[in-house]
Design goal:
It is built from 24 helices and 28 strands. It is an alpha/beta fold. The chain has 3 domains: 224 residues, Rossmann fold, CATH 3.40.50.740; 190 residues, Dimethylsulfoxide Reductase, domain 2; 118 residues, Barwin-like endoglucanases, CATH 2.40.40.20. The longest helix has 19 residues. The protein binds ligand MGD (2 copies), iron/sulfur cluster and molybdenum atom. Iron/sulfur cluster binds next to helix 1.
Length: 700
């Protein structure tokens, strides 16, 4: 058998690799692709393990009542049951009684088909996806400032040419290890890295300046850095005059954020801020990049606006080797937010309440625009409303494990239990699938064709290398089979090539225009950057060179003001808890907790605390501890480390059961993006007797 060139199934870096069956195993070889240049992280190296894992689902499962066990059934039995229940619930409670939840790991073809399925086959407005938990704040801020949301408006390789880089709330050394090569390129040629993070992460350790701020104070930091940029003479007045609007209003706010005030709020010494501004302001090429640390806040949108304001004041966006960018997280986090699985969107990054957009998309879908539902509600609001008086009575989940990854997870447990019908399409029996009434086993990344759009806005080709095991169907086949039962099967082809051809037409003329992208081009050129309006168009690796896609062609400064976190510390809950990731596990862990090498590398949930804090609480490395908030508790093993602030605990969110960090996190939402405040809540810490700790290590 020949080797197949494809990409890693996990994160948005979409590292290149080849797959080949050698005897009875699958060999992975890293491939030289611009994002990874032959590198892979441990998750990428072991990503094929799950293809042949005994933990894969290979038959549909169904339960007759909530108390009954999940038992194997045929595909017809499973799909007939879903269709019959959906019809009954919609007859009783209307089209919006059915909700759909998608994921940023789905290919463009699947995201598109899922959004269309909700609106055309189910006629429901109730669809949203896990990208809401991921980069929606950066997306909202990008749209406000630039009129477009493309995570990086330049290729990742430009980062290596920058002379100064500010990374806000990103731990790429663990979340995208091969990306560090680009930072190292910049550092080798004298470029300075500045990292803002409450923890001295492996990423922060290699930085020239580490701004170890109090969680949730990034917006004050951004205002303070802008203040210093102005007073220390680094603001690019010509750029502001030629290419932007709104600076004066923004400056009126920033002028009150003098350095000592910012130090008091953020805990970052004035001298460090001044040094950061000097490095950024004096560099000919400079970049400001944000990730989840800054974005997963109840003011995440304003926080990102604060950093975009700083980038604009320094004259960075659109200049070579310079600019603002968001490091998108999931494999298809970018494409997943462009083609219609978001509550307020239609394909091509169109708005569902825009009459012209509705006309265009309805035309492609062969329906009347009046038949298209309007905007639905955001991911957490959707989960929060399940099974309530006016809420959805059924939920169909494709590509997310909300039981582990949604905030305030005990509330989500409750809402899922109140449903009449939960349907989950997954590769494995995830914690969410385990609660479903119907489980649909689907094919994996290496078993189907399609495209992904990586963190650069590069549409790349994912190639099928192997046949799925018998009994398993692709997500597109599942949607097609269900659509058949709703009498519109002809609108839902199971062939991904046909779906992509339709997606190109649906996106044509939109912001994220894929009309000129073909599978062949994407494969032979190493990916095509959108917008790409026709087949002779080269694609757009760099945005904003000449102008911004706003009505007047100028970028907009957005007036923002700092505000406290939704839940501050007090006497009862005296510590901040922040959450995030470790290298070996991916997201809810549904996949990586089933890979032996990754479980060995990172076997159990843990809580990081500073030695001074541990001393104060009489706790030691390895102790079993419990973290408690107003919403719930999570347990883990204590890791004592000087790399964290003394007022802050850190827990990864990759585990379920007693170690589920999201039992504790807050469901405070950003008012614009509806992003939950995963990064900050108030907690207390205590010891638990070691024998009482229930680890949820491998699910096997
Ligand atoms: N190994 C691994 N890699 C992944 C993933 C994974 O699950 N595992 N997931 C992928 C996905 S979907 C995503 S979204 C990305 C996420 O990639 P990152 O954003 O790099 O990951 P996180 O660990 O969530 O958060 C980054 C950092 O934010 C810091 N932080 C916490 N609170 C604050 C704060 O208030 N302000 C600031 N400035 N920083 C704060 C944390 O200490 C942490 O080091 O990773 C992708 N890559
Ligand atoms: N406390 C805390 N919580 C967080 C975060 C945090 O930093 N802190 N980060 C948030 C972020 S950024 C994200 S992106 C979310 C992610 O959280 P989730 O949405 O739960 O992400 P995954 O664990 O990747 O879940 C994907 C599920 O889909 C399955 N799957 C994979 N590929 C396919 C496919 O092609 N088709 C189908 N049908 N299923 C598939 C996998 O087996 C898995 O069960 O978590 C959020 N939750
Ligand atoms: S960095 Fe991301 S894309 Fe690359 S190998 Fe690791 S998980 Fe896969
Ligand atoms: Mo994410």
């Amino acid at each position: 058998m020949t080797a197949t060139a494809t990409h890693c199934p996990y994160c948005a870096l979409q590292c290149g690799m080849t797959l080949e069956r050698v005897d009875d195993r699958i060999a992975i070889t890293p491939r030289d692709f611009p994002t990874n240049r032959g590198g892979l992280c441990q998750k990428g190296w072991t990503s094929a393990d799950l293809l042949s894992s005994p933990e894969r689902l290979t038959t549909p499962l169904m339960r007759q009542t909530r108390a009954a066990p999940l038992l194997p059934v045929t595909w017809d039995e499973a799909l007939d049951r879903v269709a019959a229940d959906v019809r009954r619930l919609q007859a009783e409670s209307g089209p919006d009684s059915i909700a759909v939840f998608g994921g940023g790991g789905l290919t463009n073809e699947k995201s598109y088909a899922l959004g269309k399925f909700a609106r055309v086959a189910l006629r429901t407005s109730k669809i949203d996806y896990n990208g809401r938990f991921c980069m929606s704040s950066a997306a909202a801020a990008g749209n406000k400032a630039f009129g477009v949301d493309r995570g990086l408006p330049f290729p990742v390789t430009d980062i290596g040419t920058a002379h100064a880089i500010l990374l806000v709330g990103s731990n790429v050394a663990e979340t995208m290890p091969p990306f560090v090569q680009h930072l190292a390129d910049a550092q080798r040629s004298g470029g300075a890295l500045i990292v803002a993070d409450p923890r001295r992460t492996p990423t922060a350790q290699s930085a020239a300046v580490h701004l170890q701020l109090t969680p949730g104070t990034d917006l004050a930091l951004a205002l303070g850095l802008l203040h210093l940029a102005m007073t220390d003479g680094y603001v690019d007045k010509e750029y502001i005059a030629d290419r932007t609007t709104g600076f004066d209003d923004v400056w009126r706010r920033a002028v009150t954020w003098w350095p000592e005030r910012v130090e008091r709020v953020t805990g970052v010494p004035v001298e460090q801020m001044r040094e950061a501004v000097r490095l950024l302001g004096s560099a000919e090429r400079a970049m400001i990049l944000t990730a989840r640390g800054a974005e997963q806040q109840s003011k995440g949108t304003d926080t990102v606006s604060g950093f975009i304001n700083l980038a604009l004041a320094l004259g960075l966006p659109g200049r070579p080797g310079s600019g603002y960018g968001c490091l998108t997280g999931q494999g298809n986090g970018q494409g997943g937010r462009e083609h219609g699985q978001k509550a307020d969107q239609l394909p091509g990054y169109r708005k569902i309440d825009d009459p012209a957009a509705r006309e265009h998309v309805a035309g492609v879908w062969g329906i009347d625009a009046s038949e298209l539902p309007g905007a639905g509600v955001s991911a957490y609001e959707l989960l929060d409303s399940l099974g309530t008086v006016d809420g959805p009575r059924a939920l169909l989940v494709f590509g997310s494990n909300v039981v582990v990854s949604a905030p305030n997870a005990r509330r989500v447990d409750e809402r899922l239990a109140a449903l009449d019908l939960l349907v989950v399409a997954d590769l494995v029996l995830s914690e969410t699938a385990a609660r479903a009434d119907v489980v649909l086993p689907v094919a994996q990344w290496a078993e189907e064709d399609g495209t992904m759009t990586n963190l650069e806005g590069r549409v790349l080709r994912r190639n099928k290398a192997f046949e799925p095991p018998p009994g398993v169907r692709t997500d597109l086949e599942v949607l097609s089979g269900l659509a058949d039962r709703f009498g519109c099967g002809e609108k839902f082809p199971a062939d991904p090539a046909a779906v992509f051809a339709e997606l190109r037409r649906a996106s044509a003329g939109g912001i994220a225009d894929y009309a000129g992208v073909t599978w062949e081009r994407a494969a032979s050129t190493g990916g095509v950057f959108w917008p790409c309006p026709d087949e002779s168009h080269p694609g757009t690796p760099r945005l904003f060179r000449e102008s911004f896609p706003t009505p007047d062609g100028r970028a907009r400064f957005v007036e923002v003001e700092h505000r406290p976190v939704a839940e501050d510390i007090d006497q009862d809950y005296p510590l901040y808890l922040t959450t995030g990731r470790v290298l070996a596990h991916y997201q809810s862990g549904a996949q990586t907790r089933r890979v032996r090498a990754l479980v060995d590398a990172s076997p159990e949930p843990f809580v990081e605390a500073h030695p001074e804090l541990a001393l104060r609480y009489g706790l030691h490395e390895g102790d079993a501890v419990r973290v408690t908030s107003r919403r719930g508790t999570a347990e883990g093993v204590l890791r004592v480390t000087e790399t964290i602030r003394t007022d802050t605990l850190f827990m990864p969110f990759h585990w379920s059961g007693a170690g589920r960090a999201n039992s504790v996190t807050s469901d405070a939402l950003d008012p614009t993006s509806k992003m939950p405040e995963f990064k900050i809540c108030a907690v207390r810490l205590e010891a638990v007797p070691a024998e009482a700790v229930q680890h949820d290590v491998a699910v096997s």
